[in-house]
Structures are given as C-alpha cells and as structure tokens.
Amino acid sequence: MTSTLKTRTAPPMLEKKPSATFVQSALRRGATTQPLKKNPLRSLGRAAKRLSAKAAPIKSGPRYTSSDWFKNIRSLLFLKSDILKRISSHLTFNVLLAVIGATWFHYYPEYFLNLGAIGHSLSGAALSLLLVFRTNSAYDRFWEARKILGAVVDNSRGLARIAPTALPPKAAADFGRMIVAFPYMLRLHLTGRGQKPISETSDAPDVLPFFDKDQIKTVETYFSRPFATLSLMNQILHSAQSKYPGEDQAKTLEMLPQRHILQRNVNLLAANTGACERIQGCPVPLSYSRHLSRYLTLWSATLPLVLAPMLQWWSIPVIAAICWSLFSIEEVGHMIEEPFFALPYDQVQTKRVADVIKRDTVAMFKQQLGVDLETREGLQSPAPQWQPQPALV
C-alpha cells in the first residue's frame, strides 16, 4: 500500500532530450517539420515593390539619357534640331565660304592665299576660353532662376499649410485660390504674355477657375499681374486682422502671430518675383556677346584659307562640322541665358512649378477644410462656432 501511494504521488519523469541518432532516424523517415515554401524576405520585397509602384514620384523636366543618342542624331540629320535651325543662316554662310575656298585652291593654287595653321592654332585657345566663359555665365543665370523658383514653391507651400488654420473658412478659401493663381501669373509675366487677356492665354484653364470676374478685371489692369495677385492676398490678410463675422476679438488676437507669418511669406513671394524680374531684365553684357560673335565669325570665315591647301575638297565637310560645333556652343549659351524664355524653350519648367503648387495647395485645403478650391464645392460662409487651430509654424 505504501509503495502504491509512493508510486502515485511520485512526480512525472522529465523528458529526455532526443539523441543525435534519434534525430537522424527521424530525418530519414521524414518526420521533421517541412521547410517553409515561401521566403518571408521575398514577400517583403514584393510588398515594397507594390508600395513603390503606388507612390507618386516627383515629376521632373525632360532629361537626357544615354538611350537618346540615336534620337538626337536623327533629329540633326533630318534638320529637326532647334539649335540647328537657329544657327542655319550662319552655318550656311560659312559652308559657302568653304566651297569658295576649296574651288579657289583647286583651280588657282598659285594665287591661293594660304594663311597657315599657326594663327588659328594660337587664336583658337582664346576662342575656346571665350565660349566657355560665355556658357558658364549663362548657366549661372539658369541656376539662379532654378533656386528662385524653388523658393516660390517653398513659400507657397508655407502659405497653404498655415492659411486653413489661421483664417476663417471663407477667407482661407479666397486666400488659397490666390496661392494657386500666383505661379501662373508669374509664369505669364516672365514669358512675355503678361499683357494679354488671361482668357486668351494657354494657361487660362488653369487660372480662370480660381478668379472671380471682378478679380480678373482688377488683375488685368496691373502691368505686373503677380504683384496684383499678391495685392489681393494682402487685402484678404488685412481684412482678417480686423473682426470677421463670427470671429470675436479674442480669436483675432490669438491668430495674429500666424497671420504675421502669412504676411511674411507673401513678402517673400514679392521678393522672389523681383529676383525673377532681375534675371529677365538684365541679360549678359551686350559687349561680351558681340565681341564673341565677331571673333567667332572672323575665325570661322578665314578657316578655309587654312584647311583648303591641306584637305582640298574634304575641307568643306570638315569646316561645316567645326562651325556647327562652335556655333552650337554659342547658341546654347544664348538659350540658357534666358531661363524664362518664351515657349517652347522654357528652361526652368515654370509650368511644372505652377502645377506642383496647384496640386499641393488644392490637396491641403481639401484635407483641412473640406473645400475644393477649383470647383468651390464645400465652401460655406464663416460659421460662428469657428475655432482657430494652432499650426506648426
């Protein structure tokens, strides 16, 4: 009896760890757990690819890639290159001089004026430096314009971020429409279309939905329409400094710091406009461009007198290739010197900048106020229970 009780109350024996022989035999019988058929890292990679595919990338302007080489050569051979069209008269003149030089040497070599290669070799170095300096000065203007337009985007986003929380809904919506309209007005102003009626411009579908009829008339009376748009912003802010219907004086005082920040960003947009006008109105010194053009013309015009005795008829295609390369470099400098050039040579993509500001501003107001700035859906009069919300400033 005692032994029976002891047997019953005895603790269970601990399981022994399987031996290596047991594990090997189990593996041979296939008793182990089957390995995972799917690699979890591979599934994570697929998920990352799906997320990256859904994400909207930042659109950029047209860029050159290595695969474009054949397209670029084809446009040159079929005379579709814009630069080739712009230098065609100068290039044709030099090719005719090359034909005259080769013919002269072929029929009358004893009377040919052979200049030798020393003069062009020595002066070619100075010509190369002039071309490089000219192109670099033009690129500096393009680089500055790019930075200014980046500042326009930043300041506009700052206005779109703060305005929905710093102004009553009706005033915020009016202010938001001016934020969207400003970059398009700046674009028209810089591309030489600032005096045309807005309805007759290519940007009319993007601009007109954000203006009232009275506002269009007011803006079109100004010489600088970006400045007119900023003036409308100032009017909205000035009205917001006073008492709005449904907003007591305490709320007005509470939101004054944020409204001062809005005013500061409006002033920054005015400064950005002035910086763009400085680039547009002050080109590279005319004497510099004229001297380079004269130097290049004389150097290339006398080139047949150097190459015809050495290459005979082959001097014609060689001179044509040399003149094309030098004239193209000079013309590239002329084109990027005006970053806000008339369409289609808009170097800094002002249309893309305006579309980015429009997209972000409309999305911000729709998220925070439930207002569609373009269709004006969801726009209501200021409610008495409107409460200002602090914004991250």
Automatic annotation (TrEMBL):
InterPro entries: YneE/VCCN1/2-like. Keywords: Cell membrane, Ion transport, Membrane, Transmembrane, Transmembrane helix, Transport. It holds the Pfam family Bestrophin_2. The keyword Transport applies. It is a multi-pass membrane protein. GO terms for molecular function: chloride channel activity. It is found in: Cell membrane. GO terms for cellular component: plasma membrane. Its main location: membrane. It comes from the Eukaryota. The chain crosses the membrane at residues 87-105, 111-133. This is Uncharacterized protein. It comes from Lotharella oceanica.
